Amino acid sequence: MKPFAYVKPVDIGAAVAAGAAPGAKFLGGGTNLVDLMREGIEQPDTVVDVTGLPLSAVDDLPNGGLRIGALVRNSDLAADRRVRARYPVLSQALLSGASGQLRNMATVGGNLLQRTRCPYFYDEASACNKRDPGSGCDALDGFNRSCAILGVSDDCIAAHPSDMCVALTALDAVVEVTGTGGTRRIPLTELHRLPGQTPHIETDLAPGDLITAVELPTATGNSAYRKVRDRASYAFALVSVAAGLQIENGAVTDIRLALGGVAPKPWRARQAEQLLAGGPADEAAFRRAAQAELASAAVRPGNAFKVALATNTIVATLRELSNEGTRR
Amino acid sequence: MTLIRMNVNGSAKSLEIEPRVSLLDALRERLGVTGPKKGCDQGACGACTVLADGRRINACLALAIQYDGCQITTIEGVDHPLQEAFVRHDGFQCGYCTPGQICSAIGMLSEYEAGMPSAVTDSGGLGEAEIRERMSGNVCRCGAYNGIVGAIMDVAGSDAR
């Protein structure tokens, strides 16, 4: 690992100033950054350890929502009674990610900014436009089973790895960011960028921009997370679905749908939502909506299976939620 | 170089380290505490699992400097019925993953007692499915999982198979 300077500021202003310096990188739990630094993929000159900042609280908001500090550990957020009761999709997504040890370390802010596990991003002998802009993409014609099918470009098909982000995207989370120019709020759907011709630029954050909190609006009803992967636990998603569904008199009155494992960013399935809103809550409608969302999929030989897998997983998740709604 | 202080298995330790030294290397290479094992060194196997202030973590992905002031427990500092249970249930073959398995299981049992849910939690206690899910961060290449699960169930007083 390349040597680096280490600083641990105790207030947000100092952290932002340190993080804005060239070659600086924020460090939370370390579960992704330390790994990337050991592999030489990240080579910061200065590591700004933000874990001394007072950002570890989960607070109720006056509007019924929840404010989650950026340093709340993934396990603590998953166990929070309010999250489990009001936002089950978020607790389930967190618990389906990584392992007990890693969830004890990983922070909310770090999870939002974790980087892809595309094997070519990690392999320095391979071409990767995300790691080395302009070098090409060996995933296009390589082992691309894990790669994305929606929102991809000819330069990058790496999938976003987070489970938590998929749930937060479905929940209309807003990310609070403090930078050199002050504090601003970014809808999570607008935090991450699609790769286009610049896959190395993954978010709209500028140097020094520090994620301080995530805010959730009032919960709107029942929600669930379903994850499909190559083994039963401790693996990244091939496909995942975060969904919230409310039904009255057989009609969909509220639908939130987001996908993981299939796109370079947590993917809000707006097309499917639009088709479902106000319509019947039955299996045929779920399938039509899922197929419409996947219609623009750009597949490679190794990941073409994800179209059917994502379609079926969307249908299964919505069916489960609609059955629970009926049972109540 | 930075001076950090940790309590390791009940003894106060201080050491001068570079910021890039992992907690695992600090324990093994600087303090001679070689119970935590370096399997993958990338957070994929769990052989390096230790307890930091009572919580299980992967020491390979932890920078030691972030654990300044913490209480670290490795297998050398463990005196727990799980150790006997692993012997009784043949919870290992080569033994390389065992220190991590036992530290992880201790952390897992306290998480369970504190009400931490899991991806498979419904209502039925700490049965086999729960243990397998909660212990999925510890890989055993000899495949001693049945013995490991049996040992943990034995200690946890689980009866539902």
From TrEMBL, chain A:
InterPro entries in the record: CO_DH_flav_C, CO_DH_flav_C_dom_sf, Diverse_Substr_Oxidored, FAD-bd_PCMH, FAD-bd_PCMH-like_sf, FAD-bd_PCMH_sub1, FAD-bd_PCMH_sub2, Mopterin_DH_FAD-bd
Keywords (A to Z) from UniProt? Oxidoreductase
Q: Which residues form the FAD-binding PCMH-type domain?
A: 1-221
Gene3D superfamilies named in the record: 3.30.465.10, CO dehydrogenase flavoprotein, C-terminal domain, Uridine Diphospho-n-acetylenolpyruvylglucosamine Reductase, domain 2
Please give the superkingdom of this protein's source.
Answer: Bacteria
Q: GO molecular-function annotation terms?
A: FAD binding; oxidoreductase activity
Q: Name one Pfam family in it.
A: CO_deh_flav_C
Q: What is this protein called?
A: Xanthine dehydrogenase YagS FAD-binding subunit
Identify the species of origin: Micromonospora pattaloongensis
Native organism taxonomy: Bacteria, Bacillati, Actinomycetota, Actinomycetes, Micromonosporales
UniProtKB/TrEMBL annotation, chain B:
Q: Enumerate the GO terms in the molecular function aspect.
A: 2 iron, 2 sulfur cluster binding; metal ion binding; oxidoreductase activity, acting on the aldehyde or oxo group of donors
- Protein origin, superkingdom: Bacteria
Domain 2Fe-2S ferredoxin-type: residue ranges: 2-78
User: Which InterPro entries does this chain map to?
Assistant: 2Fe-2S-bd, 2Fe-2S-bd_dom_sf, 2Fe-2S_ferredoxin-like_sf, 2Fe-2S_ferredoxin-type, 2Fe2S_fd_BS, Aldehyde_Oxdr_Iron-Sulfur, Beta-grasp_dom_sf
Q: Which UniProt keywords apply?
A: 2Fe-2S, Iron, Iron-sulfur, Metal-binding, Oxidoreductase
Q: In which pathway does it act?
A: Alkaloid degradation; nicotine degradation
Descriptive protein name: Xanthine dehydrogenase YagT iron-sulfur-binding subunit
Give the originating organism.
Micromonospora pattaloongensis
